[in-house]
Amino acid sequence: GAVVSQHPSWVICKSGTSVKIECRSLDFQATTMFWYRQFPKQSLMLMATSNEGSKATYEQGVEKDKFLINHASLTLSTLTVTSAHPEDSSFYICSAPSPLVLAVQETQYFGPGTRLLVL
Amino acid sequence: AQSVAQPEDQVNVAEGNPLTVKCTYSVSGNPYLFWYVQYPNRGLQFLLKYITGDNLVKGSYGFEAEFNKSQTSFHLKKPSALVSDSALYFCAVRENNAGNMLTFGGGTRLMVKP
């Protein structure tokens, strides 16, 4: 089946640095990808929709300049947390919609997540 | 707007006993309903979905869920729980004309004790 990967799995950084997280669809193309944030023991909160060839669509309350999204190709979306601070520490998960041919199976494939810890 | 509620933060069940994780939803149109499972420090894994057809849906790992339109519910069930079923379970909904965006419930932690 379709697979979505994320890199890195874990990242620890100092406050003030920027961190880039990659989301790749491994055996299918995704013109749209979704970025979620999950706090401990809480649900997934949609941050933004990444669109190949155009600007990302951000959910209300999500800072565009803080969380930069670039959908560089049909298989890669990146989320950059700029000038990270401890409150940005979280689990970030991306997903990509099922290709049309597999649409009967499920609606989204999820990456394994990236845990960010900002010291 | 679509929404999902999982009324229980945690469900405890003994191994071998049946389990139920509750989910209710609200959408303006016809719902597409999903259950996902999340293990520690992992992404979400698809369990099952309801799109149309039979109200009882069978999914991965012996799980099933029953769509009840009148009660707007989509409870997850398994006849005999395993310790390895212990994880975080999320119910999600998408309206049939809402693109690919899912709305998630708050999650329910399932603890299966030996």
What does this structure look like?
The complex is a heterodimer of chains A (119) and B (114). Chain A is built from no helices and eleven strands. Chain A has strands at residues 4-7, 10-13, 19-25, 32-38, 44-51, 57-58, 67-73, 76-81, 90-97, 108-110, 114-118. In chain A, the strands form two sheets. In chain A, strands 2, 4, 5, 6, 9, 10 and 11 form a seven-stranded mixed sheet that branches. Chain A has a four-stranded antiparallel sheet with strand order 1-3-8-7, with no helix packed on it. Chain A is globular and about 40 Å long. Chain B has strands spanning 3-5, 10-14, 19-21, 24-26, 31-38, 44-50, 56-58, 64-68, 73-78, 87-95, 103-104, 108-113. In chain B, the strands form three sheets. In chain B, strands 2, 5, 6, 10, 11 and 12 form a six-stranded mixed sheet that branches. In chain B, strands 3-9-8-7 form a four-stranded antiparallel sheet, with no helix packed on it. A two-stranded antiparallel ribbon of chain B has the order 1-4. The radius of gyration of chain B is 13 Å and the shape is globular. The interface between A and B is medium-sized, with 25 and 21 residues.
